[in-house]
Design brief:
One of its GO terms (molecular function) is cobalamin binding. This protein is an alpha/beta fold. The chain has helices spanning 23-34, 49-59, 74-87, 98-102, 104-111, 123-136, 204-208, 217-226, 243-256, 268-273, 275-283, 298-303, 310-322, 339-350, 368-372, 398-416, 418-434, 439-443, 447-450, 453-461, 498-506, and strands at residues 2-7, 18-19, 38-43, 63-67, 92-96, 117-119, 146-148, 151-152, 179-180, 186-189, 192-194, 212-214, 231-234, 261-266, 286-294, 326-333, 355-360. The chain has 2 domains: 2-152, Cobalamin-binding domain (Rossmann fold, 3-Layer(aba) Sandwich), CATH 3.40.50.280; 171-413, TIM Barrel, CATH 3.20.20.70.
């Protein structure tokens, strides 16, 4: 069969700071190709809807699959599915990915028949089975993870091994368009999949059932040798949870003489526990590290169920600095913040050398705060669920909240971007321009055209064609098994030694498996 894999357009944040290759969709495309199908891929972050229609006309696929990892992309995906159904009524269309896995029936209903099914869970595990069922005329509801308006198939399954799957990187037509910070161009790679923690605002653990699986160091090194880009973004939700695994990858890289520059995300407590791993990685190319602090006070950390003290957070920042790493941290702005709170956060952020990103508290389906957030949603417009818009009632009038939010972001932006930043990175920018890489340089001046309080407020005024499901009634406790996409498999699903498993349990707020 001929299969076209489609990644939707960029979101607000990714229009400025980064544009990452669609690794998840490449893995799904690779699995489809391994199953014997003819596959093409288009990424609308780097191409246009006009390009989509041109490829659809020339390729004439039997199947079109869309990546639904982000709620804010849902309206665009549904519109494309509807328009495709009108032009090509016989094409089979389905959507997979992280976010749609939690709201499968809602998305199907909104599509009004344009979408044939949702494929929940790990798409690279089930796409071959789905395509075979289509070819053989079998019941789709026999396929793990399939949801149709008629029912739901068996529970989603995991890929048998992360070593056995390979992303179809060659299908991406504009590889020089992907970057993160000064890593331009940059490819993405997966060392491990899943997260053993259980933060209230996050749906990584509910998607993967608190599992944590790793690829072997030799397979990872093989893939790194094949990647042509000099920059590498490690997509793991929490990098180097398992010290032995992180060190084994580093040793394999050193043995082969692989020269890359790396960017990763981790937790402060993981960094402090596995200091030697991060030290070794800083010696083989790790340049950037992102730490999700989320809050600058103990009450905020408790709210997000991050059992990491402020002292430990600051200790982690200090250690990262000692390694010469460029550190970025994330702070979650709560809609209850007033002007004084915004000002205090601005001052704190200016006193530290780290790059600070501000996002907005957003209840997502699949998270505990979706069920426990006592404040009711003020909008159900999918497009606003991008962690840059307020979807809960704000203490300040909404126009003032956005003024303070963008003012805070602008202060932090000025600290690290624009002319001042160019002075510090002139050599990097010059080298990139000589190579024809303009992503990073363009980024330096795009902020004000994207982050604008009037534009953000105007987004609330747009008529919403598609509405999210109604938020459930507030509850004090949630049956966590009801949140999972992949059911919890307990200890056996986590590739951690006993000491690391105990460390994870001690740094979680919940004692449930």
């Amino acid at each position: 069969m001929k299969v076209l894999a489609v990644h939707p357009s960029a979101l607000m944040y990714t229009k400025v700071f980064l544009r990452l290759e669609p690794l998840g969709l490449e893995l799904v495309a690779g699995a489809a190709r391994d199953a014997g199908h003819d596959v093409q891929l288009i990424d609308l972050q780097a191409e246009t809807h006009k390009d989509y229609w041109a490829l659809l006309d020339s390729f004439q696929p039997d199947v079109v699959c869309f990546s639904g990892n982000y709620l804010a992309n849902v309206p665009e995906i549904i519109d494309l599915c509807r328009a495709t159904r009108v032009r090509y009524p016989d094409i089979f269309q389905f959507i997979g990915g992280h976010s749609v896995s939690f709201i499968a029936r809602d998305v199907l209903a909104l599509s009004e028949g344009a979408v044939n099914c949702i494929l929940k869970g790990e798409g690279d595990a089930s796409i071959g089975l789905l395509l075979r069922a289509l070819e053989d005329g079998k019941d789709l509801l026999s396929v793990p993870g399939v949801v149709t308006m008629d029912g739901e198939g068996p529970p989603p399954v995991f890929v048998e091994s992360l070593d056995a799957i390979r992303p179809a990187r060659d299908l991406l037509r504009h590889r020089n368009k992907y970057f993160i910070g000064t890593l331009d161009p940059a490819a993405s790679i997966e060392f491990a999949r899943g997260c053993p923690w259980d933060c209230t605002f996050c749906s990584a653990w509910t998607f993967y059932g608190r599992s944590y699986r790793t690829a072997s160091p030799t397979v990872i090194a093989d893939e790194l040798e094949e990647i042509k880009e000099p920059g590498i973004f490690i997509v793991d939700d929490v990098a180097f949870v398992h010290e032995e695994h992180g060190m084994a990858i580093a040793n394999e890289i050193k043995k082969r003489g692989i020269k890359k520059e790396y960017y990763l995300e981790t937790r402060a407590d993981v960094l402090l526990r596995n200091k030697e791993v991060f030290k070794v990685w800083s010696e083989i190319g790790l340049s950037y590290i992102f730490i999700g602090m989320e809050a600058v006070d103990e009450e905020g950390l408790k709210q997000f169920r991050k059992r990491v003290s402020l002292d430990k957070n600051f200790e982690a920042l200090e250690y990262a600095r000692s390694l010469g790493l460029i550190v970025a941290i994330n702070i979650i702005a709560d809609p209850d913040w007033d002007r004084a709170r915004f000002e205090a956060v601005r001052q704190w952020c200016l006193e530290i050398p780290e790059i600070v990103n501000i996002s907005v508290t957003t209840p997502y389906p699949g998270t505990e705060i979706w069920h426990k957030e006592a404040r009711r949603l003020t909008t159900r417009d999918y497009r606003l669920f991008d962690i840059q818009h307020a979807v809960l009632p704000t203490k300040l009038p909404l126009p003032e909240f956005y003024e303070e939010l963008v003012k805070t972001q602008q202060v932090l932006n000025t600290k690290h971007m624009g002319w001042e930043a160019l002075k510090d990175t002139a050599g990097i920018a010059g080298r990139l321009l000589l190579k024809g890489q303009t992503n990073f340089v363009k980024m330096l001046w795009k902020f004000n055209s994207v982050f604008n309080p009037k534009l953000q407020l105007a987004d609330h005024m747009r008529k919403a064609r598609y509405l999210m499901p109604i938020q459930p009634d507030v509850v004090d406790s949630v049956d966590r098994k009801d949140l999972y996409v992949h059911g919890p498999g307990g200890r056996k699903t986590r590739a951690l030694d006993d000491a690391t498993e105990q460390f994870v349990d001690k740094t979680r707020m919940s004692e449930n498996a």
